[in-house]
Design brief:
mainly beta, 1 helix, 11 strands, 5% helix
């Protein structure tokens, strides 16, 4: 069973930072397009950021552009989402996902949310 596991969530105050990690068992993330998505209460799931298997192409949604950074550490089989200058509107359950086939641009893939494998999600709460 291919599994993705998110970690690093928690409760922080506005302006602070968190780093989410996504690791995998049974497969190597290096060969997959990886995405971070989030879902806030009462809202639809939305794309946050995605990175191509090569690591060369990335996508960021407008609300997080300039504040979040996605990266891969192939040696650790981990994809990170560094989240800086967090805002209350970043509060959500964050999911990582993996796609085995890069069928279009990383931006289009991210916006489509058509990924093969999903983690269970992790809560990020930004509050005073």
């Amino acid at each position: 069973q291919l599994q993705l596991v998110e970690s690093g969530g928690g409760l922080v105050q506005p302006g602070e930072s968190l780093r989410l990690s996504c690791t995998a068992s049974e497969f190597t993330l290096e060969y997959y397009t990886i995405g971070w998505f989030r879902q806030a209460p009462g809202k639809e799931r939305e794309a946050v950021s995605c990175i191509r298997s090569s690591g060369g192409d990335t996508y960021y949604s407008d609300p997080v552009k300039g504040r979040f950074t996605i990266s891969k550490d192939n040696a650790k089989n981990t994809v990170y989402l560094q989240m800086n200058s967090l805002k209350t509107e970043d509060t959500a359950v964050y999911y990582c996902a993996a796609a085995s086939f890069a069928w279009t641009t990383v931006q289009a893939m991210c916006r489509s949310s058509e990924f093969d494998y999903w983690g269970q999600g992790i809560q990020v709460t930004v509050s005073t």
